[in-house]
Amino acid sequence: MRVQNRKFVLLILILLNAACSNMNKVRIEKKVIDGKNILIKQIFDENNKLDEEYTMNMDSVFYGRYSKFYPDGKLQTTGFYTDAEKDSTWIYYFRNGNIREQQNWFIHNRFGEQKLYYENGVIRSFEFLNLSGGRLFLVNYDSTGQIVKWEGAPIYIAYNSSSLKAGDEFQMYCFVGGPEGVSFKVRVQENKEEVPNKISSKEYSMEEIHNLPYAKKVSLEKRYKEKGRYLVTIIVDYYNDKINRSDSSSIDLSID
Q1: Fewest CB within 10 A of the end CB: N or C in the chain?
Q2: Which domain of life is it from (predicted)?
């Protein structure tokens, strides 16, 4: 009977110890950053080494920096949350510290430039996604960084309307992908349907191209005073010692 009691007590102690151990694997600390109260949630592995770290708001919703670590303490993943949704740039690392993958997120979807790398740090693939996460463009590289596949066009256009009244402002934002190892230029051409031979063209300087985390952006804001139909074409010229090509996308604009 005493042996059974001792076994029972030993079992209870083991269970209590395991429960305490599990409780110690999560630590939540309140901090004040830029005048705002936040929570830092840390998760530890069975060896009491930091495995993950979240930033949360006071309602315990993921909001801010996220990090995940390899068992040896090296960074494995870093990213950002907004209202518990992935946002901004997420980077995944190999154990040797080189980047394995770079994702860009915008409004709860992957958007714009997405990159994969070989373990030696050489670019492996470059994708350009639309605002819904659909692929517009893909470039694959071999292990030396040479381009072996080029598919699609890395251009995404957003605009306020394709049908406006004379004098209203037309607003267009063009997001362009810049694959590694390739230079590019951006031009915008406009011509009126009634006067097809009269074409106005503007080439954007590098100072006029906004370098965003997920894309390169050019803007066109213009008021059309004359009624008619216009064709607005965005042209991106890509070039290096082996590539010389142009991709384009157009908007049919009606001014009443």
Answers
A1: N
A2: Bacteria
The tens-digit pLDDT sequence of the chain (256 residues) is 444 554 444 444 444 444 444 444 999 999 988 888 999 999 999 999 999 999 999 998 999 999 999 999 999 999 999 999 999 999 999 999 999 999 999 988 999 999 999 999 999 999 999 999 999 999 999 999 999 999 999 999 999 999 999 999 999 999 999 999 999 999 999 998 877 777 788 999 989 999 999 999 999 999 999 899 999 999 999 999 989 999 999 999 999 9
Task: Give the residue from 152, 178, 201 where a domain finishes.
Answer: 152
**Taking Cα atoms as reference points, which of 59, 101, 118 lies closest to residue 84?**
59
Same-domain status, 35 and 52? yes
End position of a domain, from candidates 92, 122, 152: 152
- Residue entry with tokens 């008021």: 223
Domain of 74, in residue numbers? 25-152
Instruction: Convert the chain into a string of H (helix), E (strand) and C (coil).
Output: CHHHHHHHHHHHHHHHHHHHHHHCCEEEEEEEECCEEEEEEEEECCCCCEEEEEEECCCCCEEEEEEEECCCCCEEEEEEEECCEEEEEEEEECCCCCEEEEEEEECCEECEEEEEECCCCCEEEEEEECCCCCEEEEEEECCCCCEEEEEECCEEEEECCCEECCCCEEEEEEEECCCCCCEEEEEEEEEECCEEEEEEEEEECHHHCEECCCCEEEEEEEECCCCEEEEEEEEEEEECCCCEEEEEEEEEEEEC
